[in-house]
Each structure stands twice: as structure tokens, then as C-alpha cells.
Amino acid sequence: MVEAKAKNGMNRCPKCGATDTSLDLKSGKLKCNYCRALFDATSANGATDISQLKGRKVSGGAKDIIPDKKTIVTFKCPACGAEVVINADEATSAKCHWCRHVFGINEQIENGAVPDMVLPFKLDKATGEKKIREFVEKRQFYAHPVFKKEFTTENTMGVYLPYMVVDVNAHASLSGQAEHQTRSYTVQINNRTVRYYDADLYNVARDFDIVIDDLTVEASKDKLNQNSLINTTNVINAIMPFDTENCVSWNANYLRGFASEKRDANVEDVSGIAKAQAQDIARFKVKETMEFYDRGAVWSSESIDVKGAEWKSAYLPIWLYSYLEKKDDKKLLHYVAVNARDGKTMGSVPIYTAKLLAVSIVIEVLSIVLGFFWAFIWFSDDDSAYAGFLSLFPGFVYYFIIKNKYRNMNARNKHESNTKSEISNVKKSDTFVEKRTRLRNSQIEGKNSDDVKGTVAKMNKNGFMENISSKVIEEIKNQQ
Fold this sequence. Notes:
By secondary structure, this protein is of the alpha+beta class. The chain has two domains: 66-111, no CATH class; 125-348 and 408-479, no CATH class. It has ten helices and 17 strands. The chain has helices at 125-137, 145-150, 221-224, 234-238, 267-285, 353-378, 381-390, 394-407, 415-418, 470-479; strands at residues 21-24, 29-32, 38-39, 55-58, 72-76, 83-87, 93-95, 102-104, 117-118, 157-189, 192-218, 248-249, 259-260, 297-327, 330-339, 345-347, 420-439. Strands 4, 9, 10, 11, 12, 13, 14, 15, 16 and 17 form a ten-stranded mixed sheet that branches. Strands 1-2-3 form a three-stranded antiparallel sheet, with no helix packed on it.
């Protein structure tokens, strides 16, 4: 029998030996386009013990892109010997026009532009279109009329997007203070009921090893720019995580019938994001050892020492619908994205702002009138002002709830809980400090144990992401 695995990531049909293969969505296997046989591709996941990783390991597909490498490349087909010329700036794969063998650019040059592994599409186009249609149909009332007129799922494309996937072996240390609630009670003050809390305060510290499996970060600079005020790429981030454990070794045949985007971010560009996200994961994972402290913790010191990391590049699959909204001289590209493995869908729909504002104003006026009417009839004099004050907000609240439903500006991948991780060798330190009484807050003041610092959607005062490396930030600024 012919071996299914050949050189340079080329998969031959184990039945007839042909290299002209493509993805069969129903089975998730490769299909021979000559004899129609189905066969499994080579898994990209080995038996690496992450806890033993030391130093930085960067796979061939994740190496820095060489910008001055010649882009006109000549290939000698490994199947039939023919020579094929392609422009590497315009494609990450090519097909022999004689034997139809499909091969990747990194079979010829090691420039890091082609990934180490690929996660095949699982959902077909009809399913992707259905998910996108259902998402948009739930947002019809305030959708812009031009968008509703032009919307069609025929524009949906299957796209492989570039990501960096990193395994991390690290040691983390956190120290600070935490509170345990001992009592909750109410006190009558004049005509109002006030709730108080009593709690015990502790000095706490946690020291532990942590392994993080397949932390995934975008490797495309325009997808890293998740400033939702000027773009909607955050919705693509929100359809993560992917089941990267099912990735297979790179094979250009998986790209047949789909578009793909070339990676333009190197390991150094995203290493800061990855480290910040690893620290988020550690902060959330250590909560497993902090169940006693039901009022949360204030970490005054946090550190993570990365002992070892292994970087790989991957193509991950999505069904993508895009729509360019034009308003005067401004343009905003809206996306609706579907995870082509599990069907998770997120998107942004253009809003008919005039209609939303009109309805919000009506709600605001009615709430003010009704609020003051109820305040003088149903409440005591002491509470009338408070009730009237609350009536000032419903219109504003409604506006932002609807805007968030349509635009999903805060949507993101919850990497801190979605990424697989394990901690070990935990050393605890818990020292009682004092008893606290008549506290007004239900949580410890200054609580930061639930903070997330590694999201690239987090913007600084200048409107740019805090945790992206300065190199990427500068390039993003220059593009605008």
C-alpha cells in the first residue's frame, strides 16, 4: 500500500497514490479526487509534555517572515516533475497545472508565511449561511434600511485565518489581601433599609507552576486592532476558542474552495499579548484555591516567569460575511463570523441611529413623567427625589443595550477561562489580619482578582490597545 504521508506535507491517497486530494466536509477526512477514497491526514499534535518545556521553541511555520525574500517563486512539482511559477505575495498555495498536485509555499522557502498546521472546516457553507442569517434576522428592527436591502448570505466566504498557538510552561506568584464574609445583615436608618457586611481580612499568597495548552492569538495585524470604535474585528476574536487539538499537519489541499489570509505578525509581535493572557489565565486558575474568600481578593503583586514556550502557526476556519457601511466620508466594515467547527456566531450589524435615538427619547420622556408621578404618589417624601432620579436613566440604558446587541462592541474571547490549563506544586500562605464590621460593599474594596489585562480589545487613553507590542501599535497607527 502507498504511504498516505509524503514529503513536505504532501498527502498521497493510500489507495491509488494520487496527490490530488481535497477536504470532505461530511467526514472531515481528505478525499482523493481520482478514486474517491477517504483517508485521515496526519495529526499535528504530538505527545509533548508542556511541563518540561524550557526556553523558546519556534516551529518552521512560526518563524519570522522575511520581507525581502523574492516573491516570484519557481517550484518543481514533487509528483510529476513539472515546474510551476507563482507570485508568493498573492497566494499561499499553488497547483501544478499538469498533475493537479497542490503544494504550499513553504515547500520551497522557509519564510514563515505558511502555517505548521490547519484545522479543517467542519460546517458546510449552507450551515454557515444559516447561522449568519439567523444572527441578522434577530436584529432587523433597528438595522439600517440600506443594509437590510443589500444583505444576502451569498456573500458568505469560507476563510482560513492565521493564528499563533503557544504552549506555555510557567511559574506564577501572587500576593495581596482577601476577605471572607462572616455576616450579612440589614439596619433600619430613618425610613430606609441599609445592608451591611462583616468580614475577616487575610494576607494571602499563592506560588505555583502552571501549564497552558494551546493559547491562541491572532497573527494578522488588522485582526489584532480590535478598537471597536473604528472596526468590528473584535467579533472575529469572540468566536474563539477553536478545538486546536484536532489540527492536522499543514496540507495545502485543505485550502481548496476556501480563501486564506497570509500571516503578517511574528512571534515577537504577539509575545507580549500571549504573556499578558497567560497571566490572566494564572489569575483565574488560582481562584480554585481561593474558595474560602467569597468576597474576592486584591492582588498587590503578580508575576509570571515563563520557563518554556513552544510556538506554532495555524490556519483556523471561519465562515465570514462582511458589509461596508458608508456614512458621509466615513466607512466601517462590519463582520458576521461563524466558527466553522462549532457554529458559534458573533457579528456587527449597521444601526439606523436616527430610529434608535427617536425610540430612546420617547422612552426617556415617558420614564421621566411616570417616574415623578410614582414618586409623589407611591413614595414617602424622603424617597421621592431618589425615585425621580432613577427615572432619568431608562432611555439612555435602552440606547446602549440595543447598540451593544447590534454592534457587540465588547464581545471577545474569554481566554482567561476558555484556554486549557493546569496548576501544580501550589504553595499557600494565609494569615489572619483583622475583623471588619459594617462594610457597605458586597465585595472587598479594590477587588482585582477578576481583572482581565491581556485582551487586545482593551484600549488606552489614546484609543490603542495597551497590551500589543509597541511595534504593532505603531504600524496600526500608521495605517489609519
